[in-house]
Write a structure and sequence with these properties.
Layout (H helix, E strand, L loop, with lengths): L2 E7 L3 E8 L4 E9 L14 E2 L1 H18 L5 E8 L4 E4 L11 E2 L7 H11 L2 H8 L8 H11 L1 H6 L2 E4 H10 L5 E2 H4 L5 E2 L4 E2 L1 H7 L10 E2 L4 E4 L2 H7 L5 E3 L2 E2 H9 L6 E6 L3 E7 L11 E4 L5 E7 L3 H10 L4 H9 L9 E5 L12 E5 L6 H18 L10 E5 L6 H11 L3 E3 L5 H15 L3 H4 L15 H25 L2
Parallel strand pairs: 1-5, 5-14, 5-15, 9-12, 16-22, 22-23
Antiparallel strand pairs: 1-2, 2-3, 4-7, 6-8, 10-11, 13-14, 16-17, 17-19, 18-19, 20-21
Helix pairs in contact: 2-4, 2-8, 10-15, 11-13, 12-13, 13-14, 13-17, 14-17
Length: about 500
Amino acid sequence: MGLYAGFDCSTQSLTVTVIDSRTRQIAFKESVAFPEPFLEATDPQVVHASPQMWRQTLELLLERLARGIDRRRLRAISGSAQQHGSVYCGETPEDLTRPTAPIWMDASTSRECREIEGALGGPHAVARLTGSRCHPRFTAPQIRKFARESPDEFARTVRIHLVSSWMASLLVGVHAPIDHADGSGMNLMDIRAGQWLAAAMEATASGLRSRLPPLVPSSSVIGHLSEYWQNRFDLPAADVIAWSGDNPCSLVGIGLFEEGQLAISLGTSDTIFGPLESPRVSSDLTGHVFASPTGAYMGITVFRNGALARERVRDSFGMSWDQFSEALRHTPPGNDGAMMLPWFEPEITPHVPNPGVHRYRLETAAAPAHVRAIVEAQVMALARHSEWMGVRPRAIHAVGGAAVNAEILQVVADVFDTEVRRFENADAAALGAALRAFQADTAVPWTEVFEGFVSPLGGRVRPMPAHVETYRRLRPIHAEHEAAALHSVNP
């Protein structure tokens, strides 16, 4: 029984969590915030980060890891990373042919999305093939843009990595493969076959196939910790398990492995996700299907205007978070018909390229009505835009910063008509990566992997029948407002 390390390279920080399979406890945890999470650009739609910053932070955390654990017991390492970002390399992982990496916040590839979808038969065809229509943050349109704008640098590129596979490459010292779960967020992988899709590669860039790493199952041992790291920090030749994306790793870190379980993450972005037995595809093109680290699939819908939008409303009225909660407590469910579409930033779901907040019956309303309007709008959007998964949740696992707010969770329970359970998810993606390393090394069944590591914090929130009926009446009205607003911004 050994120690298993899981890293998570998120947008803001790099975290490592080490679990002890003998005691079923977390043996070590450390996090380092990035000094400059993303780089300034003249075009606000262009958002890149520095791979060298990720590499330097990885070295710092490995040093702290080596000092903080019984190194002899370290058996395996895996990792998680923000999805969709891409890193461009020469013959070795350290040889960068592009000094910056476009990340998931980049929205500058609308032209490339249209071109790829046109070549593959339209957005619905792309979704059927790859699990998602083309989105500007996805890797294929980002590659196409780089190949067009920087042909010389693209020609020198030997390997195109995801952030996850590049970080794994740094650990093993050679180019690592891409796992199925993260690979399915690129618009390049056949979602059912788990193989690179020839037509998608051809639609993206000439000569792309030779530049993509191989695809492997998420549980694959891709090598051992390189001699460089062994010698530098006196670490053992631990197995390195394929790294994956943050959303698939969070699925594991929260303990979701059976269809019928759903999680809502109320963080910087709001997301709703859960396991799927088969790759059902979103008919309205708002959701995504990824491969799951457990070998099945996961569905997910992402909303960019999450915590930051709630903060904008709070700050506009000079409120504290306690006052924000108080406002929810003292306003009626349904908000007397007042609503908001809180697109303070360009929105992912539904697709809103240019920001704009739409308010209904809020012109003369007091601050509490605006608070309830944004929370109800966000939760109704979560519910409506996840219907494509075809899952009637038995319970919802609530995680993320806003999951500590009982009033927000009551709205979630009432809109979904389902019990909500709050889970500790501090560094869920890093914990999920550590659990993946443990499972890959021991072949313990997934139903046993989570025991002792993932449990609710207590205080279940149950739906209130009268409120459930109120939201059942409001959801079609919310849909009508959204459709009208979308027509005005996307005529």
